[in-house]
Structures are given as C-alpha cells and as structure tokens.
Amino acid sequence: MEMRRREFITLLGGVAVSGELPVRAQPRHIPRVGIVWIASQTVVGPFHDAFREGLRELGYVEGQTIFIEARFAQGKLELLPGIAEELVRAKVDVLVAPATAIVQSLKQVTTAIPIVMANVADPVGFGFVESLQHPGANITGFSNLMVEQVGKNIELFREALPDLSRLAVLVDPAAPDATLVLREARASARVLGFSLHPVEARQPEDFDSAVRQASDQNCDGLLVSTVEGLFFVNRARIIEAAAKHRMPAVFAAPPFGLAEAGALLSYGANTPDMLRRSARYVDRIIRGAKPAELPVQQPIKFELGVNLKTAKALGLTIPRRQLFTRSAHQGMADQICSR
After folding, report:
1. Fewer CB within a 10 Å sphere, N or C end of the chain?
2. How far apart are CA 31 and CA 83, in angstroms?
3. How many other C-beta atoms lie within 10 A of the C-beta of residue 233?
C-alpha cells in the first residue's frame, strides 16, 4: 500500500512537471517602419504611395507583415525635431527620411535606429555618412544628386534662353542645402559667362517680392534651387509669381506636378523611383543588414519637363529638338506639357 502511494505521488509529480514543460510560441515580431514627410499627406501622397508600393513588391502586407508609422510636418520644419523624438520613443525598427532636413532631425536623436535616406542631397557634405561606398554608421540610403544637378539645370536653361546673361536663384536660407546650391550655381555661371543674383524667400509671403526683385534686377530667368520643404509645398505659388512678373523659371527638380502647373523647365531625379528603391534597403535592414555595410545609392532615372504653353506666353521658342535629343542621349524621360 505504501509502495502504491509513493508511485501515485510520483506519478502526480510527473504530471505536474510535464504540464509545465510546453513553452508557448512567442508572438512573431512585425517590423515597424517610421517615415517622416515635411509636407502634408495630400502633397506627398504619390511619393508615399511609391514607397508603400516598393514594400508590396517585396511581399509585405501593411498591417499584417509590416507596420508603417507615417508622420507629416505639414510644411513646418520646426515640427521635425518633435516628430523625430516621437518615433524614436516608439522604438520603430527602421526610419525613412525623404529629405535632408529630416535626416538632420533624426540624426540628432538616435545613433542606434537605422536611418534610410530616400531623397537627400550631398550626404557626405552634410556629414550623414563617411563616404558613399562606406557609410560608416546607422545611416545609408539614396542621394538625389540635387546639388550636382544644379549645373545641368543651368545648362538646360542656357539652351532654352541663349541670351541668358543674368540669372536669379531663389533660395531659402533655412534650407540645409542652400549654401551648396549657390556654390554650384556660381561655378556654372563662371563657366558659362553670366552673372548670378540670389533672391531669398523664408516664407510663402516672400515669393512675390523675391521674383519682383529678380525682375527689378533685370534678370533673364529664375532658378528655383530646391523643392524641399517650403518650396515644394508652395511650388504653385512660385510658378504663379513667375508668371505674374513674366520671369522664365526652371526648377532643379523632377517635373512631377511642375510642368502641369506651368513651370517652364524642370529637371531632376525621378523621386518616386528612389522611394520605391529605398524600400529594398528597408527590407535588407529588417533582415539583418547593417546600414554601415550598405553603400549609398544614386538615381538611375531622370526626368526633363517643358511647358510649351508657358514658353509661348513668355514669347520664347524652346529648341525642342536640341533639348530632347540631348535628353535621350543622357537617359532622361521627357515630359512635354502644352496646357
């Protein structure tokens, strides 16, 4: 009887222990990606959708296999630091920065969370990476070559306006790349033999007076140095001011939303393509790659836009054959708008 009692106790003990052995499967970690935009969701919608499309092409399903934490600064650069801190506190797995000012804000609040630049000018010059081939820290991604394209924009402007002798450059002193753009523009002006005249706009109300200042200085044309932040959100107002003062304007940016709005010329890297490609780097980092080991990529698609209606209104004849033959040789996509 005593033996059976001991066997029974032992058996109960075995059941009790065996009941503790099974381990519940840990919930699968679903990666969270934070992405910050300077402009409103309405304005940057096509670019944001391009990034999401890039993730879908890689097999991700939003809300099931990946979460996207999107934040929009509504065109207010002063909101960026707070947004950056919020996403870092949220402990996202990867941060995506589609503008230079965004990278600066994120860089100030984290050295641990990987940051993928999606559309940034001169990442080496700004100190974001040690070199394009070897980024060296928690930041990598895609450079838009915007600063390098300034010279190309001026060359195209000169071809469209052979008599160009005085060029105004619209800059926002608060924009991170304003100094770099002016440096490149001055270098091109020296080579092509014309004078350069910076005009500043720090807020939307400054656009009309800046273009009027360029007109008063007898400038033949206006180069809009960047469409990041303030200029991107208010690009239609800049175009309206240029039309009001009969000032030919070229934008150092891809023609998306510019040619149709009335910009005479626009040239730059294909931004949606860079956003789609940045999704691949996000995927590689989620799978374990280190940003320091991923070289900074450059654009492979460029676009040139011309608005013929604007040219006609200004009394200009655009040498279409010359411009578009050149663009074909250089791998640009052409966009002609006659509306």
Report:
1. N
2. 19
3. 20
**CA-only gyration radius of the chain, Å:** 26
The answer to whether 233 touches 39, Cβ cutoff 8 Å, is yes
Q: How many residues does the chain have?
A: 339
Tens-place pLDDT, residues 306-337: 888 898 898 888 776 555 544 443 444 455 55
Q: Are 53 and 276 in contact (CB under 8 A)?
A: yes
Number of H helices, E strands in the chain: 12, 12
- As a whole number of angstroms, the distance between CA 97 and CA 118 comes to 6
What does residue 143 show for φ and ψ, rounded to 5 degrees? Answer: -95, 140
Rounded to a whole number, what is the distance in angstroms from the first to the last CA of the chain?
A: 102
Average pLDDT rounded to a whole number, residues 89-96: 97
Give the 3-state secondary structure of residue 116: strand
Rounded-to-10 torsion of CA 120, 123, 126, 127: 140
**In this structure, what is the dihedral angle of CA atoms 110, 115, 119, 122, given to the nearest 10 degrees?**
70
Question: Is 0.70 surpassed by the pTM of this model?
Answer: yes
For residue range 135-190, list pLDDT tens digits in order.
Answer: 999 999 999 887 778 888 888 888 888 888 999 999 988 877 788 888 889 999 99
CA 120 → CA 115, 128, 144, distances in Å? 12, 10, 5
Sorted by where each starts, the structural domains of the chain and their CATH numbers stand as 32-145+271-293 (3.40.50.2300), 146-270+301-337 (3.40.50.2300)
Non-local (6+) Cβ contacts of 50 within 8 A are: 271, 272, 273, 275, 276
